[in-house]
Amino acid sequence: DEITRTLRSSNGASAGIEEETLKKTVITESVLRACTSSTTKNQTSEHATAKFEGFDIRSDLVSTLQKIWRRHGNIVEKSIMRNSDIIARALESLATAVRLLEDNTAHSLSVSQADYLASTLSDLRCISFKVYWLVPYVQKAIQIHKSKSSVESLNNLSQLSSQVKDRKAILLDELAKLGAEENKLKEEREKVSKLIPFCGQVELDKPVGAGLT
Question: What is the pTM assigned to this prediction?
Answer without folding.
Answer: 0.58
